[in-house]
């Protein structure tokens, strides 16, 4: 079946020229219509308080969409809470990580992101298993992301901060489109609500993510184009592969097959997509390989360092041996000259020291002059005492009379 018109259940990209869908429009002359199948409604702060989740108790946050970033910082503002500067931010892709620039100083914060899939982000998170993770998300009970986190056994708390509400799609004539691309279970519910007879419309259904595949299976809708796969990691590539007829034989079923067979094909495609999601055994193998490679690199560095140190020690010993030989001849010559200088100057200093006591002799003469001054008053004192003794002698004569 040729595809000429596609309905994408997402808002139109800000820059369509740089979007991967531009290749479909230019190369294959496909008419693409963008329309979001649901609206995002934020949960109030009072409802969030009922969960008894305190954002300050966590050391890391996981973001899988721009909506989760918007509502996380909205909730912080409503709760009047602040985020610690040491908080770590883990984003599923680089584009989502760059979106954080609208709320934080990107260069001054610890931001991590995966290469392309959520499983890539889990590999990065495996190096930070001691962190307490907060996962802002919708109020859905379980998604492919929560399943992956549970399988990898991370310590995380699901924090519902927004909810999804289906939009009315009845203004579209669904038969005007050759294919519809869905990206979430809420998009499937919105499509079924607006078009209950979508099963018999003959429109091809493309879906991204195992949770979306499971939602289609619950509604009994046949999945024709599944993503992501190894050959088609994005929806745009999956649609292009289908247009070109590449690697779609295992996914597409013939028109005359029953719905039971189509459900089996959905299961088969889901099994192929499973390796994209985090797998504990794969993580262990990859981590062991990385550890072995790191150990080999460390051993090589240690051996190179030991070799350089041994060479440096040899050079140092050779230099010391050369330095010790040359100063042995010059050292006694310097000592002799130093002794002669000291011996010649020493008697000159002693001669000057002998002149000093001559000055002290002159200083001793000064107290010698003071000695007679002290003796003069000592002689006068007894003279007065003698005269005083004569006075009682006169009293004795009076008694005789």
Structure, described:
The chain is of the alpha/beta class and 401 residues long. Among the domains are: 5-37 and 167-276, Rossmann fold (3-Layer(aba) Sandwich); 41-166, 3-Layer(aba) Sandwich (Rossmann fold). Helix content is 54%, strand content 13%. The protein contains twelve helices and eleven strands. The chain has helices spanning 21-28, 45-49, 66-79, 94-99, 118-125, 144-152, 185-194, 210-219, 235-244, 259-273, 280-325, 327-400, and strands spanning 5-8, 31-34, 38-42, 60-63, 88-91, 110-113, 133-138, 156-166, 179-182, 204-208, 225-227. The strands form two sheets. A six-stranded mixed β-sheet has the order 3-8-7-4-5-6. The chain starts with a strand and ends with a helix.
Using brief descriptors, characterize the structure shown.
single chain, 401 residues, alpha/beta, Rossmann fold, six-stranded mixed sheet, five-stranded parallel sheet, 11 strands, globular, disordered C terminus
